[in-house]
């Protein structure tokens, strides 16, 4: 019986099944195979066992599954291809209609598009693909522009290197460096001292200390290039502090060659107290003239991080004289605090030292903080500031505008 079953399988696989699969004879073939098997069973043994009937049923199921797989491979593939083509045509029609459709779409994205449950979901998915494609294009464009800028910068750097190689420019730069260093060396012997108080490290964060050091570096560069530089002192300076590490980051090997005085001692231990003046914006005393015999102290701090009165309290605790720049006397102050950066203070002090002209010195104050210079006497300044404040508050605006226009016709017309 088993030999007969094997023989029937071979005969059906070789002849009947492919022919049936090609011509769609699925229903007629299965009853014929069952009758053949039954007739052979009757010839050999009229009484068939129930186990043999179960084998026939299982064999039928196996044959059905094989036929279904072969037919599905032959029939379903063209259906999928036709549906993908239809989806592409739909997207092309949407593109012609002016909708946001991506230019390139893969088969996986098409299948996802076909699986969307509704038309609105399909529109949202296509819009998402379109935006994704636009982002990729923008990223590529930015990368190309960045590459072009880098190449241009390299070309310019190569050109500047060629110009730097010229003997005249090299000689000029080296000569100027020698001249600046010679002036700084002279200032260490004959120059007027200027003290930077480095005792505010605990009052600031790491970022604010780094900002302070950058301002001091710019101040030192400005002082070194001036005609009559100060002799700069860094007092209360601790080794391996945040200040120290930031200075090494900025100066690197040149830190040990700077023509300045660095000490961990307080300025009251180095200079007599009667010659020290602490410059702070919180001081009630206004600086009238620049005194060449005095030693001015500047707090090494970022203004926005320090509370009001910290530097003034420190100066009073040490019993020192204080002074503030006469900003309200010479400038029509607009808004903001009257604190300046360290490099601005250095420019102002150097200009006062060379020219003794407050108008030239205060030109280094940022223009956003004041409206202009005051040309009237000091006793009329308070009235003018009251007028400005009244204008801002909006009280009796027309009357105040007339008075302000009479006092400052040029400034009022500019507004």
Task: Please give a structural write-up.
The structure is a single chain. The protein has 415 residues and is of the alpha/beta class. Among the domains are: 91-151, no CATH class; 191-328 and 338-369, Alpha/beta knot (3-Layer(aba) Sandwich), CATH 3.40.1280. It is built from 16 helices and eight strands. It has helices at 2-23, 26-44, 50-96, 107-114, 119-164, 167-190, 206-224, 242-251, 267-270, 310-317, 327-330, 342-355, 358-361, 381-393, 397-407, 409-414, and strands at 193-197, 231-235, 261-262, 276-279, 295-299, 321-323, 331-333, 370-373. The strands form two sheets. The chain has a six-stranded parallel sheet with strand order 3-2-1-5-4-6. A two-stranded antiparallel sheet has the order 7-8. Strand 2, helix 8 and strand 3 form a beta-alpha-beta unit. The longest helix is centred in the N-terminal third of the chain and has 47 residues, at 50-96. The radius of gyration is 46 Å and the shape is elongated. This is tRNA methyltransferase 10 homolog C. It comes from Poecile atricapillus (Black-capped chickadee).
């Amino acid at each position: 019986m088993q030999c007969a079953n094997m023989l029937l399988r071979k005969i059906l696989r070789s002849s009947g099944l492919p022919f049936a699969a090609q011509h769609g004879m699925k229903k007629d073939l299965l009853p014929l195979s069952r009758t053949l098997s039954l007739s052979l069973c009757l010839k050999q043994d009229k009484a068939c066992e129930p186990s043999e009937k179960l084998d026939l049923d299982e064999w039928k199921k196996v044959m059905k599954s094989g036929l279904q797989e072969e037919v599905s491979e032959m029939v379903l593939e063209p259906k999928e291809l036709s549906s993908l083509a239809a989806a592409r045509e739909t997207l092309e029609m949407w593109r012609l209609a002016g909708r946001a459709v991506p230019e390139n779409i893969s088969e996986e994205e098409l299948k996802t598009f076909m699986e969307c449950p509704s038309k609105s979901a399909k529109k949202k998915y296509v819009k998402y693909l379109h935006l994704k494609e636009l982002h990729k294009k923008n990223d590529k464009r930015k990368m190309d522009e960045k590459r072009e800028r880098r190449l241009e910068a390299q070309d310019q750097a190569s050109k500047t290197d060629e110009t730097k190689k010229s003997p005249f420019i090299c000689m000029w730069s080296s000569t100027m460096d020698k001249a600046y260093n010679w002036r700084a060396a002279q200032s260490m012997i004959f120059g007027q001292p200027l003290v930077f108080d480095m005792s505010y490290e605990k009052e600031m964060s790491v970022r604010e200390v780094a900002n302070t050091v950058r301002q001091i570096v710019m101040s030192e560069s400005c002082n070194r290039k001036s005609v009559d530089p100060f002799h700069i002192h860094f007092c209360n300076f601790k080794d391996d502090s945040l200040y120290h590490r930031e200075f090494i980051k900025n100066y690197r090997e040149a830190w040990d060659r700077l023509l300045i005085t660095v000490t961990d001692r307080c300025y009251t231990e180095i200079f007599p107290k009667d010659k020290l003046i602490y410059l702070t914006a919180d001081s009630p005393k206004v600086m009238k003239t620049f005194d060449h015999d005095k030693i001015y102290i500047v707090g090494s701090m970022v203004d926005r991080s320090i509370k009001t009165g910290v530097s003034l309290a420190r100066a009073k605790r040490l019993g020192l004289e204080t002074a503030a720049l006469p900003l309200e006397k010479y400038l029509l102050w607009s808004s903001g605090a009257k604190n300046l950066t360290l490099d601005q203070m250095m420019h102002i002090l150097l200009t006062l030292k060379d020219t003794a002209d407050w108008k030239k010195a205060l030109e280094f104050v940022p223009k956003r903080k004041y409206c202009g210079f005051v040309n009237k006497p000091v006793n009329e300044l308070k009235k003018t500031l009251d007028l400005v404040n009244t204008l801002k508050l909006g009280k009796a605006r027309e009357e105040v505008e007339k008075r302000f226009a009479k006092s400052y016709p040029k400034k009022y017309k500019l507004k």
